[in-house]
Amino acid sequence: GGALYVFSALYASLGRRIAQATQLASFPIPSSWSQTFWSSFVASSFVSGVEILEAIVDELLLKEEGGVLFPNKLQQAMLSTLELEVEFLRSFDSLLMPINLVPTSHTSIELVVDFDGTITTDQTSPLLPLLSIQKKGKSKEEAEEEWGKLGENYMAMYNEFLSTSLPSSSTIFEFLEKYDEFESTAYNPVEESQSLSHLTMEDIKACALIVHHNSCPNIESAHPFPANKPFVSTTTSIRPGVQQGLRKMTEESTSLRIISLNWSQEFVSEVISLSFPASPLPSRVLSNSLFSEPPPHPSFPSTGKLTRRVTTSKEKVVFTSNPNSLKITIGDSLNDLSALLSSDIPIILKNHQTKQLSGSFSRVCKSYGLSLLPLFASTFPSLSSPSPSPSRKKNVIFVAESWWELCVWWKEWQKVSGQQPS
């Protein structure tokens, strides 16, 4: 089964990327390649089948074999296959010529990574409000209904904003200014509803445990739930490949920060701490807080008012503006766009469940002529732009399928850019 997935993924991904390469570079398909062969190579039904296999493999990565998390060999096979794919593509010397994307003026790499939907498989934002509402005497069903109404109201305002602001904004920067204003007010209804009050640090840690247990369902004995386990549930977990990717990037980068619009920096830090024990990553989290400074006693309850630090995409940029660093930003949605456009190498991750880009993100990019190119185009200039540094044109964003792809890309990018681990 593992071999079937690995080679199917290889062929499907190769087919898609070679198709993109030939279109972007006006590279003719060799006449020796029959139409039947080419059609089979990139058939959408074949790609769909591989995506189903990928989902199955993701599930296998969380299973036990003999009491040990078994898929180390499978993970290594997947990574080795991606490396083989890159090696294959590089055999087209006339088409794919690597260049140095790191200007000599940059002395270090600065990595900026989003949390919800980027590190996690889905949004974690409902967890704390659902627990807060129940702590005030509501049932689980009543809490879900109350929070659901707030969510519906937000989505109605969000869709109205897009429908009015996209046509009226002449440039992407004008649109993003309006979007920042919208984002900064989106927290107000949540505060006014008191949906984040009565929460303690113990509550926050318990919710973080839920995400951790979903990511590692076979290690509950190592991190048991507290006696007053919260009455909230979610299927959200850490995305496959995140641990491997962030560990490697942390080891080889002078700066890696996790910057999030989440309600609670304490929650994000706790999830990261559980997923990366004995790692400096929890101290590199920047987000909002349910508490005022300094951090309270563990039993001190939240008031429902946020200490706002990062409420817009633009504010992510403020915290990462080091002119001497080459900046790589990894996000997954529209609220990452300002940060992505300010980066030297902007990377957008596809949704873990749908395997598609965020609909609103794609819509905005299309409206303002932003190019979305495969991630490995950042190491293949002839696939992305005649410019020596394509991302610096501020109209190119690179698309990653998964963290497994990011793992291999990181290794390859360092090789072709000439950037040595710091």
TrEMBL record:
<protein>
    <submittedName>
        <fullName>Uncharacterized protein</fullName>
    </submittedName>
</protein>
<dbReference type="InterPro" id="IPR036412">
    <property type="entry name" value="HAD-like_sf"/>
</dbReference>
<dbReference type="InterPro" id="IPR050849">
    <property type="entry name" value="HAD-like_hydrolase_phosphatase"/>
</dbReference>
